[in-house]
Amino acid sequence: MANKKYVYLFKEGRADMRDLLGGKGANLAEMTNIGLPVPPGLTITTEACNEYYAVGREFPPGMEEQLKEMLAELEAQTGKKFGDTENPLLVSVRSGAKFSMPGMMDTILNLGLNDITVQGMAKATNNERFALDCYRRFIQMFGDVAMGVPHHDFEEILFKSKSAHDVKFDHQLDAEALKKIIAEYKKLYKRHTGEEFPQEPYKQLLLAVKAVFGSWNSDRAIVYRKHNKIPDDLGTAVNVQTMVFGNMGDDCGTGVAFTRNPSTGEKKLYGEYLINAQGEDVVAGIRTPQPIASLEKDMPAVYRQFVEIGRLLENHYRDMQDIKFTVEKKKLYILQTRNG
Asked: What pTM was computed for the model?
């Protein structure tokens, strides 16, 4: 079925397409369509996942061509190019079945970085340390979640570097330290996979998509579906979204918030955020986040916009919302919302 549509831009989807786009994909489409500041992206459908298994773990005919076509559309929307040496487009890759379930692939951030694009990013942001830190995180996430390289082996390399430089936090490591960590990470990757870390961004993307499809049939996911009587043939979608950066400096940040206090129901933003951080830093508990009320002091315009978006979302979904957000250079982006 080469003429079947396997890839949808967020702006082409709708809330009632959960079967095809998964819960997350349908939600991102819906948020895009009601005018929220959602970083642009695309969703590969659950049908593509089912057909991937039907033909013996191969992408269905036509899917890759559509993916390339939609990527070109994303490049046009963002003004950045995949694999570009000057201003590279970087994406996150997430799984997204109709229902969320354990055992599915975790998020990969900063996909599209390699030895060359990391230099382009350093130039574009005028911040070498930031670019190297993104690359370091990408190798670790890709190695761990897409290729099965043990997470703790990466963490050990990082821990040793922090000890050697006598620092407590990741963000205190300088560019030179990060370059050495990246070299160590690549050696670790090769030791476990038998291959060099992939430098071609499109190859990175295809491997990540395969890993999402593969996670649909992970042991944990299968057991969970059996236990909860969820059919095995729903399949998972894959969401590919333009990266926005909460870790570019002190005018950036990332966090999670409810549109009202979940304990008391008070209609006031409730949650926490970290300045100069990426998403996993908030949940990892490495640094202590600030309460969302402090955002009013740190970035008043962003806070006002956030309050307005919270109101818009509650009116639209008619329920309290649980929102993941990132601020890049004082610009607010909404990454996810769900009923709280």
From this structure: 0.87
